TrEMBL record:
Organism expressing this protein natively: Streptomyces rubrolavendulae
Any one biological process term the GO annotation gives: cobalt ion transport
Entry's transmembrane regions: none
Subcellular compartments: Cell membrane
Keyword terms, alphabetized: ATP-binding, Cell membrane, Hydrolase, Membrane, Nucleotide-binding, Translocase, Transport
Highest rank taxon of the organism: Bacteria
Domain ABC transporter: 7-242
Pfam families listed in its UniProt record: ABC_tran (PF00005)
InterPro entries reported for this sequence: AAA+_ATPase, ABC_transporter-like_ATP-bd, ABC_transporter-like_CS, ABC_transpr_CbiO/EcfA_su, Co_trans_ATP-bd, ECF_ABC_transporter_ATP-bd, P-loop_NTPase
Example GO molecular function: ATP hydrolysis activity
Coiled coil region boundaries: none
Record's bilayer topology term: Peripheral membrane protein
UniProt name for this protein: ABC transporter ATP-binding protein
CC terms in the record's Gene Ontology section: ATP-binding cassette (ABC) transporter complex
């Protein structure tokens, strides 16, 4: 059912050994079919939250649920979780370990005990989705950073998860690499995958996400991304900056150049195209 929670934390609390609580009493749901940005400054708990959602860490208190049912942390429960939710960690070198791209991407599906044909089909589809089919036989240590990022994501995609969770996927990418990655994510979303992305880049969240979860010291605030990012008090509490695109839109509206309901340009390229279409000169 679109919009219902695929995976959710209920009353979740977590602290690292000997550390203060990172999360306490957190309710956090990932609705099916939405693009969700988890926003917070460094150290706000983004990675911890993503690892709790994907089962890599276990809540100290509270529960993790898939389709409304508590996850059992036994072999069967964790397999069910792994085929529903896949996390791609921030550093691809923490994820890639096989000699070649194809071997790495095939590891997860092979471990599920799928027939060879099915594994091959999944690897091919995942490599195509990330636009790296030509790299299948390439040794992973010879890849560029952007290629390693895409190979790591392909490994998660080959598990055909309903929810793909990416920890700061654009960190370290150049602008072209970022655009290629966003295009690949658009393709996965169009094919029905729910995508969750942690980032501290408010402008990226504004242009990419439907919903946002802003991590504040009082816990996450969730809602439509444009609404949350227009809330200056919330951004201050989370110690995030204002999105540049929102300031531009506010200025254009105040000058009567942009109608109230008209979509605002979210990138410099969109602003240029918007200006060119209206004959506005800088
Ligand atoms: N392995 C760990 N052991 C102890 N403390 C950790 C560990 N990982 C993260 N932390 C602490 O937990 C808090 C949240 O970190 P993290 O979830 O990595 O935030 P973010 O991803 O938003 O930067 C920080 O205070 C961080 O120092
Ligand atoms: Mg992090």
């Amino acid at each position: 059912m679109p919009g219902s929670a695929v995976v959710e934390l209920v009353g979740a609390g977590f602290a690292y050994e000997d550390g203060p609580p990172v999360l306490s009493g957190v309710d956090f749901a990932v609705p099916e079919g939405r693009a969700l940005a988890v926003l917070g400054r460094n150290g706000s708990g983004k990675t911890t939250l993503l690892r709790l959602l994907s089962g890599g860490l276990r809540c100290g208190s509270g529960r993790l649920r898939v389709d409304g049912r508590d996850v059992a942390y036994d072999r069967k429960g964790l397999t069910r979780l792994r085929t529903t939710v896949q996390l791609v960690v921030q550093d691809p070198d923490d994820q890639l370990f096989a000699a070649s791209v194809g071997q790495d991407v095939s590891f997860g599906p092979m471990n599920l005990g799928l027939p060879e044909d099915e594994v091959r089909a999944r690897v091919r589809d995942a490599l195509e989705a990330l636009d790296i089919a030509a790299l299948e036989d390439r040794p992973t240590h010879l890849l560029s950073y952007g290629q390693r990022k895409r190979a790591a994501i392909a490994g998660a995609v080959a598990m055909r998860p309903r929810v793909l969770i990416l920890d700061e996927p654009t960190a370290g990418l150049d602008p072209h690499g970022q655009e290629r990655l966003l295009a690949a994510l658009d393709g996965l979303r169009a094919a029905g995958t729910t995508v969750v992305m942690a980032t501290h880049d408010v402008d990226l969240a504004l242009r990419w996400a439907d919903d946002a979860a802003v991590l504040t010291p009082d816990g996450p605030r969730t809602g439509p991304v444009a609404e949350l990012l227009a809330d200056a008090g919330l951004l201050d509490a989370a110690r995030l900056r204002r999105p540049w695109a929102m300031s531009v839109a506010r200025l254009l509206r105040a000058r009567g150049l942009l109608g109230e309901g008209e979509p605002a340009p979210c990138t410099p390229e969109e602003l240029d195209a918007w200006a060119a279409a209206r004959g506005v000169r800088g």
